[in-house]
Amino acid sequence: MSRVLVIESSARKEGSVSRQLTADFIGQWQAANPQDQIQVRDLAVEQVPHLDIDLLSGWMKPADQQNEVEKAAAARSNLLTDELLAADVLVLAAPMYNFAIPSTLKSWLDHVLRAGVTFKYTETGPQGLLTGKRAYVLTARGGVYSGSAMDHQEPYLRQALAFVGIHDVTFIHAEGLNMGAEFLEKGLAQAREQLAKVA
Question: Where FMN is bound, by residue (predicted)?
Fold first, then answer.
């Protein structure tokens, strides 16, 4: 049995293509792997604050020296990190906002990319501690940006995931969604064709 952690980051509840892709992924995965556990964390519903002084202070102090706000911030980070540590498969649903990922997803990453927990520093540089996990990134893009210098989404997420040791990463892009009906239909069809091969 595998544990699948799905992170939703679209700010839209209705008409969200990334949410449609997530629903397709979950349905296909459950059909092929009925014994697996799937957990969904929706960052639009359960918002994760941006990295701030309280969280940084909480990380830097022993538990008995933290104030109540720092304890709450550290506990939130611990919860999110524990979910990631427990997962065998990570699914990131990431619409492209202004050529990059939503700030909500960046906030989640800031809570779980933690020295000594998900990566460590060594004499030869940082080393990821989450080896053996797989990741799938489902993106929705108004234009066509794959391989373009304007794509600050895939390169960043690849680097962030590799930094914590997740190198088996598959990107599934639904592109051209705002370029007319033909591009929309083609983009969705291509993404769903790739999704069908995943489970």
Answer: 10, 16-18, 96-99
